[in-house]
TrEMBL record:
Positions of ATP binding: 920
Bias (Low complexity) ranges: 825-837
Transmembrane segments: 36-56, 76-99, 132-154, 470-495, 502-520
Protein name according to UniProt: Protein kinase domain-containing protein
């Protein structure tokens, strides 16, 4: 070994002479210059930051710059490409220098091949070397073209791109608080209303007379001939067109928006909201209408007279029309003196033979206060008005506006009846005719009768009249009356921004990666202190290197306590190191491992005298934190009593300062013994040692307390190890021989004890050992031979079990220790939370220590699909957990099964039972539903302990275990149950045919009936039976798979990083990553009979009718039994389960559910039930107010409608899909028995349904279902 070291030193010296011959000073100057070139990276860094900020904050170019770029597009693009090329050159230079310097340092430590050297050269230049092996050539090609790629990305990030900016402004909208000018001109005050005519149009309060032609023309096109959305012009000179209904809104557009346009010359769109009246028109034929045409005894005069439903009986409607016979007359009657002014107004139409479809029609116009969103497309001059759901204050509290608007229709009809024609009648007929054309051209309305077509066309025309008149009055308020009020408007303006997001992100990532690489290399190499002058890119140096007989040769030492290539030692006795004879000072020793050194030359070891305030200790443990910025000291012994030590001493490497972290725990000091540090585990192995009065204040005599606990001066054979930072001591195997040592070192799992004696110094016969004294293998036992192949360390099992749960202790002896070792925002708990996959209850909820609240917390996260709401990781909410965590020292988390509003559910391995289980971990705030569910399951579990239990008990989940865990968000209840593979609904969703094989469907249905029978026998109503709450058990064969085999078959757990929207650090109690639930299932048609083992889950809605009254159902809307709607005063009971059981069996056998509908209302569900099962019981039938929408009084459908009958549903839900999928159909005999059973279970009245026991005895169950269940078992 001595000869080898001398040869290395000779070669290193020879290399240094060669370097000097090249010119050392010249190289140092060049290196300094290249270091400074890294400063050019500040340019792409600043640009990347600005670009990201511009994208995140949606920055846009100011108007002046917008005009400049718009005018000189070509020149700007050329400049962008030049800048992009310069930026890519800077970044590529940085990458090449990093590769060159890193490989030069590596080259100085170990020899390399010519191919590798060629690759390094190609990557550092960059250039393509075609003489290299293929994979190296490919790398060189990538590097050579990297500049072009980066340049292209920068071009995309800097090129101005079209965008839309958002400005806010105000816009005057009609003010209805002063409606004094809105009157019934001229009939009310015998004069024309105030009027203005200007370049923007004609605006008047005499709407019915002044805008007569425009109103009628618009009404004539109220129906579109192709059924499309109607486009109609605004009744002024602004040139705007309404797309769809105007609802009387949008009058301000083009009239009072001049300021908006002047402030935003590039505006493309603006939106605002205003309050108005939404008119709902409904027309019928009233054959008994008393509003009729009567001749006045003269040839050309006719009276339209008679009362309306809202008329004052003392003042019926009366108006005189002129015509050549009554055939040409179309008159509209609107009560001039109604019995009361209300939001609902009536109008009646009497018409002659020329306009027969209009005669005897009667309409209601209901004016409802509403808020409208008005969107204006400026380039296309379109206005779109959308009615909002928000409640609105009425602009017409006295209903005078509604009265005046509706009365205009009578004035219009009177004015537009001529001697030979009625212009109004022609307009109304045109709307009807266009609607008839639309019906004929589409297939969706072919069943409409002529009367229905006529009424719909008339309704469209009346809507057009009313909407246009409301706009006209609103325009008059603005332009004539000057009654306006400001409203906020959002304006969208054409703008330019820098770059596209994808390119901005790409350049930012590249810049970030390069900067991180530079910083990492700078830190790792301590500013490239170990960079050799020898550069293989310099031909002069290659020649000199070759003449030296090979590459650079350097010492390499693999030690412990290594931070950033520097070995740190702390010792009281500097004299133990070569070259230092002072044994009285306290030193921090560090050695730069990137520089040549010799174990025979102490000058290479840098000794720094430690501050006098730090206890003078020897034999300490020294380890680094994860960031390699701080060293921690523990253990050791001193010159005198050290029991006054008050904490853990830390050394800041950057600041080169010592400080104490005060704790209530007093550091354990041991004299002698030996420490072996294993930084990667943050643990130390301690061999031997004792306490005496120099180490421990409580010892006042000559006693020595050895590490093995004996109060005597026995030989030291004890080996133990200290887990840091938990500070737990663990006993290891004894040494083969007694040993006292001075120095300790580690290599993989092998601990070297160097030097030492048989016993302590006062035993003169102790004698000394040769070096090394022993080799102790921490995995096995003391060794007699060193094994260089053992380079990796594996934890002893007891440490592995302890650290599996958490890298931090379950409890801290002192809180200040946790502050020292646990990063901010990290949980030190050994357990974590999870929850059951359960339907969320329809509204956004959050967790708080006091329970559920209706609003989520203020912290917002970047959304992640298919995982729980991240906002529920908060105090009182979910508990963070990771794959591999252990719960209750028994269950190891393997994967996530699902989640819900109140819990998450995890797949875990039970080490005692050696099988998989499901663990549901509730939120810390608790959930009354979960409490109810757990109480039900506990009760069922107690029943299951009794002998001769019911067969259905096997299909009810048991709580196998329950316990609580504590975490950063509170205390969580954990329930252990049998895991499910998937629900029946999920199995069908995973299938393209959505069918189970018939034997499988029979077995599942039989099990479900047995499960319900067991529940009812225990007095429990499930109350939420459906395919989503019936799980298929995880096959027992899965228990034979280890977690690793499970991952091979189903994939590794997929995690997603959790990030806040504001990019701030995550709060305490929020996991850094979340797990996407595993899919263990398969398509429904692939499930075999042996796999058809069910579990009925989700007892959150279950109750006991004997003690609980329930008047509602939270079952899916299509499955809710009818008594919920018609007998709400009667508590639900067991028949409710029979109804949902029948619906679920149907869905198991068939492809589609029995009752169907998208987001159905209660009326829709009842309609489906009547279509399938027939007319409701008479008392319920009469209670159902909506029946006339679809049915005649005898329960049949209105003419033209085709209901899906019971038999038809079975055909298109069960038989036909099975035929198409070539899956076994239900035979005729079985079909009769099955439908008989289901029809009985679906009796409308609950008292007429069979009990579940009677269902069990049905022919279908006995002959088809239960036999398959026997085979399944």
């Amino acid at each position: 070994m001595r000869t080898r070291n001398d040869e290395k030193q000779r070669l290193v010296s020879q290399r240094r002479v060669s370097e000097d011959s090249v010119g050392k000073s010249s190289w140092q100057s060049q290196s300094t210059w290249e270091h400074l070139l890294f400063g050019l990276l500040i340019i792409p860094i600043v640009l990347s930051v600005l670009l990201v900020l511009s994208d995140v904050r949606n920055w846009h170019m100011p108007p002046g710059l917008f005009a400049l770029v718009d005018e000189y597009r070509t020149s700007i693009q050329t400049a962008v490409q030049i800048v992009a090329t310069a930026l890519s050159t800077i970044q590529l230079f940085a990458l090449c220098r990093l590769i060159n310097w890193g490989t030069r340092i590596l080259f100085g430590k170990s020899p390399t091949s010519l191919n590798v050297l060629g690759l390094w050269s190609a990557m550092s230049t960059p250039s393509i070397n075609w003489t290299l092996p293929l994979w190296m050539t490919i790398l060189s090609i990538v590097m050579a073209n990297l500049s072009a790629v980066i340049s292209a990305l920068w071009t995309g990030a800097l090129t101005p791109a079209n965008s839309v900016a958002f400005n806010s402004t105000t816009l005057m909208i009609p003010d209805w608080s002063n409606a004094t000018l809105i009157k019934e001109y001229p009939s009310e005050i015998d004069q024309t209303g105030p009027t203005i005519r200007n370049t923007k149009g004609y605006f008047t309060y005499s709407v019915g007379v002044g805008l007569l032609t425009s109103l009628v023309s618009s009404a004539s096109t109220a129906s579109t001939v192709d059924g499309s959305i109607r486009n109609h012009i605004k009744l002024d000179n602004t040139g705007y067109t309404y797309h769809g209904r105007s609802y009387g809104a949008g009058a301000s557009v083009g009239l009072v928006d001049d300021t908006l346009h002047s402030e935003n010359p590039r505006a493309t769109n603006y939106t605002y909201e205003e309050t108005g009246l939404a008119a709902d028109v409904a027309c019928i034929y009233n054959r008994t209408s008393q509003f009729v045409i009567q001749a006045l005894g003269e040839d050309v005069l006719y009276a339209l007279m008679g009362p309306l439903p809202d008329s004052n009986l003392s003042a019926p409607e009366y108006s005189v029309y002129i015509g050549r016979g009554d055939r040409t007359i179309v008159g509209i009657g609107v009560s001039g003196q109604p019995a009361a002014y209300t939001a609902k107004r009536y109008l009646a139409i009497a018409a002659g033979d020329y306009y027969t479809p209009l005669n005897s029609t009667q309409c209601t116009v209901t004016y409802t206060p509403a808020r409208f969103n008005v969107s204006v497309d400026i380039p296309s001059r379109n206005i779109t008005v959308a009615k909002l759901d928000a409640a609105a204050a009425s602009i017409d509290p006295t209903h005078r506006i509604a009265h005046v608007v509706t009365r205009q229709l009578e004035l219009i009809s009177n004015d537009l009846t001529s001697f030979y024609r009625s212009t109004l009648g022609d307009a109304l007929n045109a709307s009807i005719s266009d609607y008839r054309t639309a019906v004929a051209s589409t297939s969706t309305h072919t069943s409409l009768s002529d009367e229905q077509i006529a009424l719909t066309g008339l309704e469209n025309a009346i809507v057009s009249f009313v909407d246009d008149m409301l706009v006209a009055y609103a325009s008059a308020q603005l332009m004539v009356g000057g009654f306006g009020t400001p409203a906020s408007a959002a304006v969208y303006v054409s703008a330019l921004r820098l770059g596209s997001r994808v390119y901005i992100v790409a350049t930012a990532v590249i810049t970030g990666v390069i900067v991180l690489l530079v910083v990492a290399e700078m830190v790792r190499t301590r500013g490239w202190r170990g960079l050799p002058a020898f550069d293989y890119l310099d031909n002069r140096m290659l020649v000199l290197g070759a003449s030296a007989g090979g590459g650079e040769i350097a010492e390499y030492a693999k030690e412990t306590n290594i931070v950033n290539d520097t070995l740190y030692l702390i010792n009281l006795d500097g004299g133990l190191l070569p070259g230092d004879g002072n044994s009285s000072n306290n030193y921090l020793v560090h050695l730069d491992l990137t520089q040549p050194f010799s174990v025979n030359n102490g000058s290479a070891y840098h000794l720094t005298k430690i501050d006098d305030t730090v206890p003078q200790l020897k034999g300490q443990t020294l380890w680094s934190n994860a960031a390699n910025t701080t060293l921690y000291s523990y253990g050791g012994h001193g010159l005198g009593n050290t029991s006054l030590d008050e904490g853990i001493w830390t050394y800041d490497i950057g600041k080169e300062k010592w400080a104490v972290q005060r704790t209530s725990i007093k550091p354990v000091r041991l004299y002698s013994g030996v420490l072996s540090n294993v930084p990667q585990l943050q643990s130390s192995f301690w061999v031997g040692g004792y306490q005496d009065r120099d180490t421990t204040r409580a010892i006042t005599d000559e006693s020595k307390i050895y590490a093995d606990g004996n109060m005597s001066r026995e030989v030291l054979s004890d080996v133990s190890y200290l887990s840091i930072p938990s500070f737990h001591w663990y006993k290891a195997a004894d040494l083969e021989k007694q040993r006292m040592t001075l120095v300790c070192q580690v290599y993989g799992p092998q601990v070297f004890g160097i030097g030492g004696r048989i016993n302590w110094a006062d035993d003169q016969g102790a004698g000394c050992y040769p070096m090394p004294a022993f080799i102790y293998d921490v995995n096995e036992s003391p060794r007699t031979m060193f094994d260089p192949a053992l380079t990796s360390y594996s934890q002893p099992s007891v440490v592995a079990e302890r650290t599996k749960v958490s890298p931090y202790p379950a409890t801290w002896a002192d809180p200040s220790l946790r502050d020292l070792f646990v990063p901010t925002g990290t949980s030190s708990s050994t357990a974590s939370a999870s929850s059951e996959a359960k339907a969320t209850r329809g509204k956004s909820e959050s967790i708080s220590p006091g329970g559920i609240t209706d609003t989520l917390p203020n912290v917002a996260y970047i959304p992640i699909d298919d995982v729980e709401k991240l906002e529920r990781y908060r105090p009182g909410g979910y508990h963070p957990i990771t794959i591999g965590a252990w719960l209750s020292d028994r269950y190891c988390i393997v994967h996530k099964l699902g989640f819900g509003a109140y819990s998450t559910v995890w797949l875990a391995r039970d080490k005692e039972a050696e099988k998989y289980v499901a663990i549901k971990i509730t939120v810390a705030a608790g959930d009354p539903v979960d409490s109810q569910e757990s109480n039900i399951l506990r009760q069922l579990g107690v029943v299951g302990l009794k002998p001769k239990s019911h067969a259905g008990e096997a299909y009810v989940p048991r709580i196998l275990d329950e316990f609580s865990i504590s975490g950063p968000n509170g205390i969580h209840r954990c329930f252990v149950t049998t895991p499910g593979m998937m629900s029946l609904a999920e199995a069908k969703d995973a299938s393209s045919v959505r069918l189970f094989q018939l034997p499988v469907a029979r077995a599942i249905a039989a099990q479900l009936v047995q499960a319900v029978a067991f529940l009812h026998m225990q007095g429990i109503v499930h109350a939420d039976l459906h395919a989503g709450n019936v799980l298929l058990r995880l096959p027992e064969s899965m228990d034979a798979l280890s977690p690793e085999q499970l991952y091979e078959q189903y994939g590794q757990p997929h995690t997603e990083r959790v990030e806040r929207l504001d990019q701030r650090p995550l709060p305490n109690g929020v996991p850094g990553h979340v797990v996407v639930p595993i899919w263990l299932g398969k398509a429904s048609e692939r499930i075999s009979l042996s796999e058809a083992q069910i579990i009925v889950t989700d007892y959150g809605e279950s109750f006991m009718p004997a003690s609980t009254r329930r008047h509602y159902s939270h079952a899916p809307a299509l499955l809710v039994p009818p008594e919920v709607h018609f007998e709400p005063q009667v508590s639900l009971s067991f028949p409710a389960d029979i109804w949902t059981l029948a619906c679920t069996i149907w869905e198991i056998i068939g492809q589609r559910p029995l009752f169907e509908g998208f987001n159905p209302s209660a009326d829709w569900v009842i309609r489906e039930q009547v279509d399938a099962l027939g007319k409701l019981p008479l008392q319920w039938w009469l209670k159902w107010d909506s029946r006339m929408r679809w049915f005649n009084e005898d329960g049949t459908r209105h003419s033209g409608a085709s209901p899906r009958t019971w038999q038809q549903r079975f055909s298109d839900s069960v038989q036909e899909p099975r035929q198409e999928a070539k899956i076994q159909e239900v035979g005729e005999e079985e079909k009769v028995a099955l439908l008989a059973m289901l029809r009985a279970m679906l009796a409308f009245r609950p008292e007429e349904r069979p009990t579940v026991t009677e269902v069990m005895e049905c022919e279908w169950m006995q002959k088809w279902a239960l036999p398959k269940l026997t085979k399944c078992k």
